[in-house]
Amino acid sequence: MRNEHGTEAIAELLPLPPATFHILLAVASEDRHGYAIIQDVDARTDGELHLSAGTLYRSIARMVEQGLIVEVAKRRTAADDERRRYYRITAFGTAVARAEMRRLTQLVRLARASGLTPETV
After folding, report:
1. How far apart are CA 89 and CA 112, in angstroms?
2. pTM of the model
3. Tell me, what DSSP letter sits at residue 87?
């Protein structure tokens, strides 16, 4: 895990892989377990990005190591599987997600300034 979470540490992580950005979005509003993250990304992207369990858990392990998310103890209900691990975005993860959002916004701005517009299907 990084000791320093300043601007330089954020810049080192950009651009984010799409899976990483979507996982950050999934845990930005609430703690989620792996399967709930997969469902959120599927719904958010209308199925265009489907995370396999392998991709998800490799990404999560890397993101925990980078300090973007943390595993949290969550009070489990009787219906909840005790094997589930819940994840929460960190302040550093939020800063990285915001930086990626700014980067993507700038790319869209540059594309529009070059005369490119999204095609309608």
Report:
1. 32
2. 0.87
3. E
> What is the spatial distance between Cα 57 and Cα 50, in angstroms, rounded to a whole number?
13
**Strands 86-89, 69-72: parallel, antiparallel or unpaired by DSSP?**
antiparallel
In degrees, rounded to 5, the angle at the alpha carbon of residue 23 between the alpha carbons of residues 22 and 28 is: 95
Q: How many residues does the chain have?
A: 121
Under 8 Å CB-to-CB from 38, ≥6 apart: which residues?
50, 51, 53, 56
The series of mean pLDDT values per 10 residues for the chain, 121 residues long, is: 72 97 97 96 96 96 98 73 89 98 96 87 48
**Which residues of 1-121 form beta strands (DSSP E)?**
32-33, 69-72, 86-89
Residue 25 and residue 38 in contact, taking contact as beta carbons nearer than 8 Å: no
Question: Distance between CA 121 and CA 107 in Å, rounded?
Answer: 22
Of residues 21, 50, 17, 20, the one with CA closest to residue 35: 50
pLDDT for the residue numbered 44:
95
